[in-house]
Amino acid sequence: MGKVIHLTVKKPIPPKSETFKHAGQQYTCTFDPNAPPDQRWVWQVKFTRVYAYYGTNSTMEAASKAARLKIHRLIRDDTKWEENT
Fold it and tell me: Which of 26, 51, 70, 74 is the most exposed place for a label (fewest CB within 10 A)?
C-alpha cells in the first residue's frame, strides 16, 4: 500500500484561463467565479502594432546611438501618454 502524503500548504486553485490568437493578436479569457453571473468571463486583449522608424548616419556607431535615442524618446512619450489617460 502507498504512503499517505499530508500537504501542509494549501495552494489556491488558479482560475480557468485560456489564451488565444486572432488576426495576429493575442487575447485571454479568464473565469471569475466571484463575479455576477453575466460577468464571469473576463477577457483581455494585448494588441500589438509595429511601427518602423528610419534614419541615416555616417557610421554604425552613430546609427546605433540614434536608434537607441529614438527608442528612449518613444518610451518616454508612451509613458507620458499612459499618465494622461
Answer: 51
- Residues ≥6 apart with Cβ < 8 Å to 32: 15, 39, 40, 41, 42
3-state secondary structure 31-78: ECCCCCHHHCEEEEEECCCCCCCCCCCCCHHHHHHHHHHHHHHHHHHH
* Angle at 84 (CA atoms; ends 78, 85), nearest 5 degrees: 95
Look at the pTM and tell me if it is higher than 0.85.
Answer: no
Angstrom distance (rounded) from CA 56 to CA 3: 70
If we measure between CA atoms, which residue out of 28, 4, 2 comes closest to residue 15? 28
